[in-house]
């Protein structure tokens, strides 16, 4: 079996995963611990943070810190710095996201602004701060979680998709800007992944994935969401080598994206949006575009 590279030697001792207490974020933290890094994990809920940190210490023998913080807090940088108490951040993953969905003009504008705060404003502030420190030290790693929902305009996810598109381009630009300063950066392009948040959303719409990742009798062509552990392992299999500007969480998503690139933009938006619209319309008791989802 291939030995995991020593990220502590490559980047420094401490990694921080923002949104690292369960689901994909926990799986990403565990890949970093497997590679020898101590972990700072952040989320809103302290209980889940404590449980995930205990698993990291027991399974990998690493040191951990937890920071309970809400990314919608405009003072988020001060909260994080106070929680860190001087611990440097040598590797940063911005994983958490807000996913308020629903038709753009039907939803209150506050929901769109909340998406922008958590998915655009907070990552800008935090990545900017910690990337400067890494550049000064001449080494570091930065991963920004984006979404296939940000690859083109998408029904019911106008502001969520736009915010994930922002994160996509942020990671790609930093890949270019920070490389000469010794800092690796990339965008993590994620499709359907069976996290607790994903499952919660499926329950709201009562889709076939509400109870299980692998329901029987799926229509032909329907894809099963991947496991968070598989997505995280796919990311780090790429990052162990030379970093590309973007990494797909699943090779299947990369193939789909390449196929879609042959279509016109109007065809891509219509194809993907029609599928989402149908699943919203099928939500129990839903008026078109109105369910207060996510
Ligand atoms: N799952 C999918 O199918 C999918 C598809 C495409 C893209 N993505 C992207 O993948 C990333 C992770 O996805 P996921 O939603 O499935 O989540 P996840 O990684 O399973 O969990 C979300 C993490 O973020 C924390 N969090 C959520 N909202 C927060 C807030 N406002 N402030 C601070 N922490 C917060 C959660 O803890 P608390 O709840 O305790 O705060 C948890 O630790 C996101 O960037 C998402 O856009 C996911």
Summarize the model shown:
The chain is an alpha/beta fold.
Tell me about this structure.
There is one protein chain. This protein is of the alpha/beta class and 294 residues long. The protein has one domain: NAD(P)-binding Rossmann-like Domain (Rossmann fold, 3-Layer(aba) Sandwich), CATH 3.40.50. The protein is built from 10 helices and 7 strands. It has helices spanning 7-11, 23-34, 46-60, 76-84, 109-137, 158-178, 196-205, 228-239, 251-260, 265-281; strands at 14-18, 38-43, 64-68, 91-94, 140-147, 183-190, 246-248. It has a 7-stranded parallel β-sheet, with helices on both faces. Helix 5 runs parallel beside helix 6. The longest helix has 29 residues, at 109-137. It is globular. The termini are far apart. The model has no long low-confidence stretch (mean pLDDT 93). NADP nicotinamide-adenine-dinucleotide phosphate binds at residues 19-25, 43-45, 48, 70-72, 95-98, 118, 145, 147, 149, 164, 190-193, 195-198.
CATH homologous superfamily classification: NAD(P)-binding Rossmann-like Domain
Tell me the structural class: alpha/beta
Percent helix range:
40-55%
Distance between the termini: 41 Å
Helices and strands, in order, run as HEHEHEHEHEHEHHEHH
Class in CATH?
Alpha Beta
Number of domains: 1
Architecture (CATH level 2) name? 3-Layer(aba) Sandwich
Q: Give the tally of β-strands.
A: 7
- The CATH topology comes to Rossmann fold
Bound molecules: NADP nicotinamide-adenine-dinucleotide phosphate
Bulk shape? globular
Work out the helix count. Answer: 10
Low-confidence residue ranges: none
What value does the average pLDDT take?
93
Query: Nearest-angstrom radius of gyration?
Result: 19 Å
User: How much of the polypeptide forms β-strand, as a percent range?
Assistant: 5-15%
Largest beta sheet: what is the strand line-up? 3-2-1-4-5-6-7
Q: Sheet with the most strands?
A: 7 strands, parallel
